[in-house]
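so im writing up the methods section and need the Phage integrase record in one place, dumping it here so i stop losing it
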Amino acid sequence: MGKITKRVVDALGSKPNKDVFAWDSEMRGFGVRVKPTGAKTYLIQYRNIEGRTRRLVLGSCGVLTPEQARGLARQKLAAVAEGADPSADRHAIRDGMTVADVCDWYLKEAGEGRLLGRNRRPIKATSIAMDRSRIETHIKPLLGPRLVSNLTLRDVEAMQADIAAGKSARGKKLQGRGGRSTGGAGVAARAISTFRALLGHATRLGLIEKNSASGVRQMASRKVKRRLSADEVRHLGKVMRQLSANGEHPTGLGAIRLMLLTGFRRMEALSLQRAWLNRQERAIHFPDTKSGEQLRVVGLAAIECIESLPVQEHSPYVFPADVGDGHFIGVVRVLDRVCAKAKLSGVTPHVLRHTFASIAGDLGFSELTIAGLLGHTSRGVTQRYVHLDAALAVAADQVSAEIAKLMDGESKSDSKPTSPRRKRSRTSSEAADPRRSSAGDDDLRPALASS
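--- predicted struct ---
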């Protein structure tokens, strides 16, 4: 075998039930291994000071180039010549790492942008903050001192059961920001998701031998089905007008109204900047959302809501903070006060988003159209071209106008939902492309408004 190059690596094939090796002719001990599965890795083979043959994997052929692997091999083999045993050192590190050590490594690497998420981009700071909360609140207290090398799937599922039972729950922080931590299936499932992901990163990069959370069965949590009925929206609007006259926080009331008129997530609404609004296109350009950069169509009633809000000098935000240069954050407190006055229970910002989607369904819009309005990437694969979709603009106008009528107290007869026409089957082209799902579609399956 000659010098290992990309062409040589690409040409290597696998054999059933047998590893295939190719050794470099220029650097003794440097080679490529092909597993029966077809996975290819660079490695070195050497004899340690005791004369025992050792192998050390340098990295995947899909991650390292031959030149990068050659440079790593040169460093490791030079250390071997000085008496080091890099394979034994790596095993010692793997065997001695605790769950807390791996969690700290993950937070550091992710915080510095060296780990990529599912979208092949550095993990977002907001996601890291949520992961940190789950790690510090649940994972470390329950499994932190345990050695990762001894961890089993049973241990991970036992942790999930303990979280669900509330064994890692804590009261409200005495100082600083942060709410009360409780148990429950949903909290447990999200903590397991974080744990499995961080162990996956550590395994993929060779920090640990295996992902002990791989294959865990996550608990199913009940989907939030709460939505506001037309009468509840009408009553909510009436109470908001009363509280506005009595001095309730105008910024909070404005944020509640906008979330109902658009279906925006809480932070999408609160962090909204006026420069992102394009009135001509009836759209808002979000530089970053939970699903990445998006151009989101909004109705005329929503645009009028934004434009009616007072502009604070030197602040780019539609909902500026009372103090400082940031945006308003207290909408949940305002919503709680409004709902307490209106005697409405179980209303959260997510319920407002679900209400928007449900009213869109009541008006006869298809599930794909609703997904486009909400900015769901799973179904809205053409979101980047949303400015070309006239159907979404029509839908956004009609849905926001209907909600505005309800909130502003127009008569019930004026706000009846459009009667759906006879249900028809969606063509294959419409199913493949959300842009073909127009405002007249009659697929009335329940809107999926989960964020």
